[in-house]
Design brief:
There is one protein chain. This protein is α/β, with parallel strands linked by helices and 431 residues long. It contains 14 helices and 11 strands. A 7-stranded mixed β-sheet has the order 1-7-6-5-4-2-3, sandwiched between helices. It has a 4-stranded mixed β-sheet with strand order 9-8-11-10. The longest helix has 24 residues. The relative contact order is 0.16.
Amino acid sequence: MNSKVPFGRQMRETHFGFAPSFTPFNHGSYGATPLLVLRRQKEIQKLELERPDPFIIYDLPNLIDESRKAVAPLLGASVDEVVLVPNASTGVNIVLRNLKFEEKDVIVHFSTIYDACERAIDSVSALTPLTARSIPLQYPIEDDEIVQRLRDMVQKVGDEGLNVKIAMFDTVLTFPGVPMPWEALTETCKELGVLSLVDGAHGIGHVDLKQLGSISPDFFVSNCHKWLYVPRGCAVFYVPIRNQHLIRSSLPTSYRYREDESPDSNGKSRFVMLFEFVATMDHSSYCCVPAAIEFREIICGGEDEIIRYCLDLAAKGGQRVAEILGTKVMANKSGSLARCCFSTVMLPLVLKDGKDPVSKGEFHTKDVSKIKSWLNTTAFKEFDTYLQTDSHAGAMWVRLSAQIYLELGDYDWVGSKLKELCERLVDQGLD
């Protein structure tokens, strides 16, 4: 690989393959992979194309082991505690569909849970005795209050004669784009005798997770294809040794499924073997983890440099957009909501509840989906960008992803476009 390249425009033009007119502000949803890492993926795909059977049978297990060894230090975990799965949603489903739920068992989560994870809980609850309780959250809020609400819910469920078996929470929320105190929530779960399932979809490569192994949640999954620059789809699934007996099957069930707990001839545990080859698919993204980490180290200067730049850009850029719009960035008094690479900025649109008529420039909350659709579609068609917008706490917001291929001038640009879009929407309405 070449030497370090400055972040911003030069990084974009040298190492990413975006269309010249496209401005990427939604990295958090699907990620973006550097060209050098994609080159490695093509090499791997070529090897499989040339000799499919030997590659899958002999080479692939070794390449996946190399990826596991490369990614484990980013979590401060043992290589024997991490395996690879296609995405975070798969990891969440693996946990929920392996645990044995009995009458009176409850799973608690926060109202800000990712939609697909909530649907997974609904699905499992339809087939088992499990019931779910949602803890309402309205941002901005302080971390201590979030932790206290978990405590209060566990107490409330216990007072009803029920048992909170597992709690699910995020490292960084999908929307609004803010960090959660996953470390304190994990410690609280241990104290209360509750299993912890951390949805770290926006975790690895985004926030510092090197203490995860010592904090040791019961289950953790994080997408490598978002913030770590690995090609889609690849996620790291962490299960500490103490809990690996609870994961009886992969999803779908691998041909390696067995009850035998003894390691194989190579010393690999049943847990690792279970996920080594689940089903025929394109595993090339799994094999690109070392290349992505090497890119981050050599071209970018390492994890700390990347995170530092993106945090600073998110803070300054989000504030710049808020100033242009005449609104504000979502923030709390302690400043903890700024500890991620998202900036969630309020849009100058007035939402109103109820059935009463709205004045010009005002919108019913029931029209949020129409507002989102208009903003997103118009931004793409007219300005060649995609904006992640939604409502929260009675207001409309946009979630902007800071990345090494963006710079402050890009925020000036997107702020002006957002202002134009909102002014048009206020003036013209949704009709």
